[in-house]
Amino acid sequence: MTRIAFVGLGNMGGPMAANLVKAGHEVRGFDLSEASLKAAAAAGVNGSASLAEAVRDAECVITMLPKGQHVLAVWTDLATLIAEGTLVVDCSTIDVESARRAHKLAEVMNSVSLDAPVSGGTGGAAAGTLTFMVGGSETAFARGKPILEAMGRKIVHCGGAGAGQAAKICNNMILGISMIGVCEAFGLAEKLGLAHQALFDVASTSSGQCWSLTTYCPVPGPVPTSPANNDYRPGFAAALMLKDLTLSQEAAKQTGAATPLGAHAEELYAEFEKAGHGGDDFSAIIHMLREKAGG
Ligand code: NAD
Questions:
Q1: CATH code at 250?
Q2: C-alpha angle with apex 33: 52 to 239, nearest 5 degrees?
Q3: Which of 104, 134, 160 is the last residue of a domain?
Q4: Which residues does a 6 A CB cutoff place in the pocket of ligand 1?
Q5: Fewest beta carbons less than 10 Å away: which of 65, 125, 135, 273?
Q6: Is the pLDDT of residue 293 over 90?
Q7: What is the per-residue pLDDT across 72-92, written as a single tens digit (0 to 9) for each?
Q8: pTM of the model
Q9: How confident is the model at residue 119 (pLDDT cuts 50, 70, 90)?
Q10: Catalytic (active site) residue 253
Q11: Which of 98, 131, 160 is the last residue of a domain?
């Protein structure tokens, strides 16, 4: 049993904290939203009225917040609140630069830190089947792994500070590009009079095979569990895909990496969100691509 403070009890953090409780940890939670605090309390998380109260005596602090600025603000406040040697873990998806700055803040407060973003969405958070991509020292990873195992199925140590965030945005850049590629292929198949199922049967067992095709197939039919069969409800919302593509392009600019398709995927998802579809599953971008072809 570990005394854990969980900061940010939203769509992801709430169920993740609940799984820590289920695994027998003592969990205190803090969130700026009363509603999130209440929902977490119903799952056995001890709600705290302030960050200070939540982290008092904690052996481990976990943050699950929207963006880098929120993480840095909370980690800066932790400096005066936590004991030396406390393990601090950020599970949010944020830019690599902010993740590295957060590790530096932890170093200054003599705590041990990990960046540990996740994939698996709200379903994975509830089921405890998330994948964690982890950056930080071997020592920090060894301490964090058993805690992360209560919330996930696969815990991968990707390297030093920021390596978890780097892996997450590289993976999601592949995902954004490959989804658009699969949508374009179905659009072309429609124009050529080729049945969706025929393209799926061939591509899913050929070199066009990828997750966007075989798990999140953007047309209804071939993969019954894909969001296309559920009116394109997420799933993985287009707004979150845009967030991750934007993070990948910021990193590409900072490092001088050439990512022309990543940049174009970001532009297309920005256009899709602007048209009011940020809440749709990211596979719904097939509609926008069809519209570009005039129907
Ligand atoms: P969310 O908006 O539902 O939750 C964020 C929570 O943080 C909110 O409840 C908010 O009140 C709280 N918060 C903000 N600032 C705070 C502060 N200073 N102190 C305490 N609480 C604060 O977001 P989410 O969907 O849970 O996502 C969290 C992170 O996980 C994001 O970085 C997101 O990109 C990432 N992520 C989300 C998904 C998903 O499917 N939702 C999947 C993978 C990764």
A1: 1.10.1040.10
A2: 120
A3: 160
A4: 7-13, 30-33, 36, 64-66, 70, 73-74, 92-93, 118, 121-122, 240, 243
A5: 273
A6: no
A7: 999 999 999 999 999 999 999
A8: 0.94
A9: very high
A10: no
A11: 160
